[in-house]
Amino acid sequence: MISAKMMGVVDENAEALGVPRKQLMESSGNAVARVVRDVAESGSSVTLVCGRGNNGGDAFAAARFLEGYDVRVLLLGREESITTDIARENWAALKETDIDAEAVRDSRDLDLGDPDVVVDAMLGTGITGDLREPEATAAGSINELDATVVAVDVPSGVDADTGEAAGNAVDADHVVTFHDEKPGLSALDADVRVADIGIPEAAERFTGPGYLSLLSRDPNSHKGQNGDVLVVGGGPFTGAPALSTEAAFRAGADLVNTATPESVKTVLQTYGEDLMVRGLPGDHLKPEHVDELLDLAEGKHAVAIGPGLGTDEETLAAVRQFFEQFDGNAVVDADALHAIPDVDTDADLVCTPNGHELEEMGCDAADERDQRAEDVRGFAEELGHVVVAKGPEDIVSDGDRVVVNRVGNSGMTVGGTGDILTGITASFRATLDPFTAAVAATWVNGRAGDLAYEKRGNGFVASDMVEEVPYAMRRDTDLADDTR
Ligand SMILES: NC(=O)C1=CN([C@@H]2O[C@H](COP(=O)(O)OP(=O)(O)OC[C@H]3O[C@@H](n4cnc5c(N)ncnc54)[C@H](O)[C@@H]3O)[C@@H](O)[C@H]2O)[C@H](O)CC1
Ligand SMILES: [K+]
What we know:
Blueprint: H1 4-16, H2 21-39, E1 45-50, H3 54-63, E2 70-76, H4 85-95, E3 100-104, E4 117-121, H5 135-144, E5 148-152, E6 174-178, E7 191-195, H6 202-205, E8 228-232, H7 239-250, E9 255-261, H8 262-269, E10 276-280, H9 290-297, E11 302-305, H10 313-325, E12 329-332, E13 348-351, H11 355-360, H12 369-383, E14 386-389, E15 394-397, E16 402-405, H13 417-428, H14 434-456, H15 462-472
Helix pairs in contact: 2-3, 3-4, 7-13, 7-15, 9-10, 13-14, 14-15
The structure holds ligand LP7C6HRI and potassium ion.
Residues 55, 120-124, 151-156 line the site of potassium ion (K).
């Protein structure tokens, strides 16, 4: 099963792996044609009703694979209104053939005739809301025909994620969906086929730039909606919580509060004017602070806890007591991880151990790549939380899914890079589920490391790297460009 959003991620990851979207469209078109051949014999009449997005583009490609059929392609709208380059290129390629292809400028002129097969390629995963004109009228006309209806990816008007169908949705006999099943198709009264369109396995197995597509923000959002984070850290150390805090800001969070022992509050505050620091009496985190922490954590998108806390018995007891009462979202790192294996909590956790911490938590993961991934998955399942096992390759698992992050470099063994990952992950929890936030964060963190390496080689430090986080999150950042 794959959601429309994740399909977009995987599709962009595939592009980064050298399989461009236009190539996927060619495969999609081929798959649609194969189903048409399956349901209607050669010589049958086939009308492809196409929208202006990539769903229509799939059908422009399909038409070229239907030699031997009486093919007619109808584009709903003007040629100039085709929304994507690849669909436009396929329309142009189609016009070079002698296939009957026409743009229907006025929906009142739409005459579908009486074909044996109708291919519904009006709208796929790009739909928002009920069908609008001219698609609404066209869907009504398609439903009135006796033809066998083959829908491309999803019947137009049906939401591929929820299965919710607009009142005027297309009623399809067959659906050719791509790459993987879609949650919204399972309840349909139609024959649903999943076509392999050549997306490389690595596009799902590994992180990639496609995850950036999940981070776009609502232009009408208000302060706090793009991340309201609490960092709990510091005591014996001050740099770690400062890095997590800055990373959360740099990854897009609107508000980041930092709770730290009073003894280091002033030091922490001097790290930057953006920091909002709350002092907790004493020089290390203690059980007597738990009530205040719970108050501070109320309503936050995520609490990032651990960086620089130290391993004082009282501190670990405080972390344990906090989680026994806390039922929100947290990212747990460094010393706080010691408290996790035997805590009973209703919170949703992302735990980010390095190799040593993973072992201390009780996971004896193998070195061999596939076995290590399986071991981390098993451990996450046992724990009931998301685990990010950091290393030369980060392994992220929620106990079911596993995604591996290969982006980053050995310069990142410098202290503090893990604190940055913690902050980024907490920031992403504002809008993403724990697993997806963790996966996206490992890619952005690794990319920031690569950008820092490019400028300074192995001599970069975590404070250099945290400044690269915003550039790592931009799709147009060129690794070879040093004008940043
Ligand atoms: N890996 C992949 O995901 C692949 C997908 N392919 C195909 O592409 C479509 C999705 O294409 P996209 O361009 O994103 O969207 P659509 O074609 O579904 O529609 C966009 C188009 O429709 C307009 N629109 C939106 N909502 C409505 C509405 N309610 N009524 C009328 N019009 C609407 C919008 O303005 C746009 O112009 C996917 O389903 C696959 O078929 C690939 O080719 C292969 C890889
Ligand atoms: K469709």
